[in-house]
Amino acid sequence: MWFLASFDLGADISLGYRRFKDGKPTATSITVGDGSWAEVTLTTTHGMHHVTEAGPQRVWRTIENAHTLWNTLDHPGWDRFGLTVTQDHQHVWLDTPTSSHTWPLPPQQTPDAVKPSLPP
Known about the structure:
The chain is α+β, with helices and mostly antiparallel strands. Helices cover 18% and strands 33% of the residues. The chain has 2 domains: 1-75, no CATH class; 76-109, no CATH class. The chain contains 2 helices and 7 strands. A hairpin with a 2-residue loop joins strand 1 (13-21) and strand 2 (24-32). Helix 1 crosses helix 2 (59-72).
């Protein structure tokens, strides 16, 4: 499910625990590249987890949408996903390369430090 959410949240995702009580975390958080974040309590009150979020993206809504899709797709495991890479693009697919469920991946950026240099 997190794999599906990452297609909309981006590659720069940080997860962590927050709000410690007696040495144990009481919430978990997710922060994405644009600074948007969501924090979710680990315990429930009246059967509900409390969610707080801020930033330009609706992080928790994206996670909920990914969870709904994951359920709709019958909880796919790693063995149902594949990757197609061509010179022009790359994308992840579910079950077959021609599936209606595909997700484009952003082009890979080569860090300046490891870019090959051409002689003058």
